[in-house]
Write the structure tokens for this entry.
Amino acid sequence: MNQDHIRNFCIIAHIDHGKSTLADRLLELTGTVALRDMKAQLLDRMDLEREKGITIKLAPVRMEYKGYELNLIDTPGHVDFSYEVSRSLEACEGALLVVDASQGIQAQTLANVYLAMAAELTIIPVLNKIDLPAADVERVSAEVINLLGCKKEDILLISAKTGIGVDQVLEKVVELVPVPKPTTQPETRALIFDSYYDDYRGVILYVRVFDGEIKKAAQIKMIATGANGIALEVGALKPEMTAGQSLKSGEIGYIVTNLKSTREAKVGDTVTLLANPATEQLPGYKDVQPFVYAGFFPESNEFYNELKDAVEKLSLSDSALQFAPENSPVLGFGVRIGFLGLLHMDIVRERLEREYNLELVVTNPSTDYQVSMTNGDEIDIKSAADLPDVAQIKEIREPWVNGEIIVPKDYIGGVIQLISSKRGLQKNLSYVDLRAVISFEAPLANLLTDFYDQLKSITSGYGSFNYELADYRAEDLVKLDFYVAGECVGALSLMVHRSEAASLGRETVGKLKDVIPRHNFQVSLQAAIGGKFIAREDISAYRKDVTTGLYGGDVSRKKKVLAKQAKGKKRLKRFGKVDIPAEAFTVMLQRD
């Protein structure tokens, strides 16, 4: 294909603003997919994506329209996958910004617009769902004009569901999206914007070729990881894999390799030819570090090997997933897994349960902490149980995030109160038409459990939230331990700020009291910092009335039987074992 006739573009939007539906209409209009093969959310391959109505894995597709080759990338909309989105934007020259005409601009829309501007893309604004009764075209158009500085006539009004105005979108893409820049380097370079593991074919790379050409059976090399492989097959996605002889400069396509894991070919890496390798890689590559950790345990220890195998298989296709074996005295053997965020964790948990038929116990999510020791050592801990002796610690640093919340003006007060209750600092308040954009900083650990749910309830569902990791800051952090019947349960331990420890301790033992069943002896639940107990609840014992058989007679008979019962309960308390149910390990996730 002549390079002047290639257009590379992607679709960016907030969750549920109609990205995947618009992609469906574009595929229909260009005749890429026959009508009999068409189904809703065609590019969302996973069942999970269809059920939740969100894009989890991006999907490229090549379309032919009036003699032009249009390469589209449908990107994820959630903050957890923003690095993948940024790499996809680097692979394109233009972006369709899709905004829901009934909801207006949301936090992730802003975040993605900033990413697109940083990548210097041509942005085409599209207002979707104009056929809905709740659509407010005038107001949302004003928001878009404010954000992009475009003219009102530049905004395309469409309904992706019914197909109204979608043909204009294709015309604008051909007209406005720039042609790929001509190659400047003699060596071949291609950007990997996604990679996944296929059980039958190995690692498959989605790439955008910037310089040179990659032919079938060529020896290839990844610059960042140093891995070598063979391009067993190259071609384009239409949307099924269609093999070709080569991928030329400016084109987007796939490469089937003989690599065994996506860790050898990560998102953002540069592919070059082994015969004449490029030394300078394409800009923007970074190693994605997980910053949310949770322990995954099988419901019964006999399934530990199945869990380990399942996590290993999943990690082959998800290079951001990091895991290590973990052992808990109560839950037995399990795996501690690192995630990019809470949605990422939710998806991995559901995939493990569905695809591998596992019953899982997931502990409360936590983040990682940097610990400076008095002897000068620096260590990174992933859970409170790993914290070394307090006497040897100089300082503990926790991750903070820069966040952005977009809400209607009426809810500003409640949102600012919510931010300060999470030890957050409000930094800036600006307005986009009738909406307020609140910028803030907050410790990540306080946003992990129920921040998003509280935000939704405070703002009647209108608030949207986006964040990125800022830095690690030294704080007065302590390890909060929980004791059940005098025994410390390591899997329940938490890292908290000293000012929040007492209230969190009281709240957690209160929740544990509801979850742990009663026994034949009294069970004490305690929260402690070091050797100091700061909260306590008691689960009273079952009481059998042992005096029912006594009728009349001297009171000393009654006392004797009760004393015998008390003695037995005392002995039970010493030897009895408390059964801790799986729900106890997720009490922090339970809403009040």
Observations:
- The longest strand covers residues 393-408.
